[in-house]
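Hi support team,

I'm opening this ticket because the web form for multi-chain structure prediction keeps timing out on my end. I have pasted the exact lines I submitted so you can reproduce it. The total is 917 residues across two entries, so I didn't expect it to be a heavy job. Is there a limit I'm missing, or should I split the entries? Thanks in advance, R.K.
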Amino acid sequence: MRRSRYIARKITWALITLVFVITLNFFLFRVLPGDPARAGIHDPRLKKEAVEAIRVRYGLDKPVINCFQTLNPVEFGDCLVNPLETQFFIYVGNLLQGELGISYHTNRPVSSMLGEMLLNTILLIGLGQILAIVLGMLLGILAAWKAHTTIDYAALLFSLTAWSLPTFWLGIILLFIGSSQWGLPIGGRITPGMTYENTWQQIVDMGRHLILPTITFTIVFLGEYMLIMRSTVLDVLSEDYILTAKAKGVSNFQILKDHALRNAMLPMVTIIALNLGFTVSGAIQIEAVFSWPGLGGAIYTAVGRRDYPLLQGAFLLIAVSVIFANLAADLLYSYLDPRVQET
Amino acid sequence: MIKRYLFALCVLLLLLLVACGGQDTIDDSGSTEGEVVEPAAEATTPEEAAPEPSEPVQVRIGWGGSPDSLNPGLGVLTEAYTMYELLYDSMYQLELDGSYTLELAEDVQVSEDGLVWTYTLRDGVTFHDGEPLTAADVAFTYNLYAEQVDFPFLPVYTDYFDTVEAPDDKTVVITLSEAIPNIESQLVFLYVLPEHIWSQVDNPAEFENLEMIGSGPFKMREYKQNEFVILDAVKDHYLYPPKIDGAVFQTFDSQDALVQALKTGQVDMITEMPNTAVVSLRNEPNVEVVTGPPLAPSLDDIILNVTEPENCPADDGVCSGHPALLDRDVRLALAHATDKQQIIDVVLLGLGSPGLTLVPDGLPAFYNSSIEDYAYDPDLANQILDDAGYLDTDGDGVREMPDGANPLVFRLNWPSDSTKYPRTAELLSASWGEIGVETEQQALDPDTLTAICCPTFDYDVLLWGWGSDPDPAFLLSVMTTDEIPTGTSESGYSNAEYDELYVQQATELSLDKRIDMINRMQEIAHHDIPYIIPYYDQAVQAFRTDRFQGWLTDAGKIELSDITSLVVIEPVGQ
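Hello R.K., no limit was hit. The queue was backed up. Here is the completed structure from your submission:
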């Protein structure tokens, strides 16, 4: 009973956040300076009629919302227009029908563009995150168990270094080594123009392209997980119940597995959920170095071109994934530590 | 619960490790089978250098961008135009020496008044889907471009068209509203589309055109935006049958990766690279670096706000330019205090040519090379300012206006998306500082820069750039009085004689007379100094010498991804 109320409350909050994000998403880009009909085409050869026709095609000739024609510069308009004829409610209406609009830059549907890129980004982030989490946790436990020995210091030094390395720099270095020493591909998702005899060859080709970016991703994110794991396990190991367990003759492995790990999972889950949002931005740099066609690079270009539909779609996607990751973390807490339901 | 979770993770990890290990062994065996891309063995063994006959011979090109649209009406980026050039034909082909040759047409007749142009199309021209290309397609296309106002660029080139008609399958008759000297440069970008496809399209401005059916020497196989474009050769093309089987354009987001891809042999040619990489690539075996004027010339300019109060646009004008900039002596001093060679050496690492006016040396027919530029001479510049009464009366190192007020402190702005301008600004600030002129530097978002530039004229000095058409008419129009209120004029420059010559050259049918007029216009602009042009850009490209031969490197301008090279290159050793 108590658990279901807790879950219902968390879901409600997630939904409220989502509505807020959808609204903010719309206005955020419209208060930025710049005209999407001209952005990216800084060429005065563009005729006034062409700009006007492009604005009509994008729906930018309509008022942003009742009383406001445009937001930057702020220009007041008719307050009595039909709200359904304003950009905001057209946007909301389309969103409710699952329509994200057409990208200004590529003239392609945003949903299909995001679909392709999201898959690529998930592949890169997913692999990298799983490796970073697993290796980071293992290394953290090892360091905590062997606290204040050479192993611990070596692991600490490695993690701190990895954590503080600039992603871009590490990527470039790995790219040089990987391409010239190991013959790995320099960029992209697959080898364009290659003819595959079977699906396995295709998977192998893609796998080869994934190796370098994944290693970069893992190294950059591993350090943080290791450090947090190490310190929480150290904390737990100093608890009285560990001493009790030791006194009962429980094996080291059992102590780590049943007592230390379970209690150390809570901060890990928090950090992993929080990181999900940051990984997209972290992936921007890796995507740029390895020409990986993911979300990050697309967002970067879209900002420059004032590509509102693509930006709105991408930010919505990121916001939704962060909200869901946090929701999932909240729900997971209630299993990991039943006490949280009471708060 | 936790136990299972951890176990699953460990299994996943193990699987991954196994998968990675597995890939390596498979790749090792793969290389012996003679894969197309095998950098480990690049070019060391003869059988690797020349692809096996069974494999399609594809040239692999690395570039930093990707076409933004395959619809010729919508594309903005250079990469999109590269595709249009390869997949479509137009009436003329722009050669690397800047001349035009007939492409779709085999003959052209012009009426005595220069108004009626009659083109006879070649025989045997077909679209990639097998349909014949007829005069009706040409007329349909030109009318489409003229009517489709929300195509950003192409409608401009139809401005002088009165009617376009196709009396029979082979004949296209273009009637102009005014006789113009440069019809070639108008038609060269009007890519001919198949009427049987485009007439079925509801709204051409929303058409993705993914199949890209044209009549050019290459056709579309696969396009993944921001990843790659794969083209197949049209081996029986009526005019330029390629010797290779296809071309792959791969996008690299990072310039370092682009250079590395060429070094390791993962690509055969790169269309761009940072100037810093030139030295290291020149030392690389099997790689040749080529530099020269780009096919589409471009230049950077130092724009001085010279808008006279009476020319300030009534609607949008702010016209807050520093009054000293209206004095030619001040502008002359700034020109003498600008060390163009230093800017070229530092900013472009020597890969550029000194600039003169808005007409670049990449348009050799129109570029006035006889103009003698203002030499870098700070002493002379100081002298000019002293003589004109701009003295440092309060001893703070900055000169004041002759009336003692208003120190010569200029706002200096540039677009924040460029890596070249910040260094140029630094150098300018130092060398102008030597003559008692101070600058307040700030990079601005391009949109903001547009807002302060024109037609508001709310700035003192801007650093920006232009790309040029093959004809100088547009860049010449930038300095006319008529363009001040439209936003095309960036400097607010106005000169009656210049304006008059501009109007005359637009309809002067004799090329020699037109060139004389354009030369005179450059002299006027150079004398009045609304702009200081630090340099003209150069194209920097490189290719592998062990893969393909025949790249056009000495035909005038440099553009290895242009149709002129791609239809003549062939594998090395064949």
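A quick check on our side: Chain B touches chain A through 72 residues (CB under 8 Å). Let us know if the file doesn't open in your viewer.
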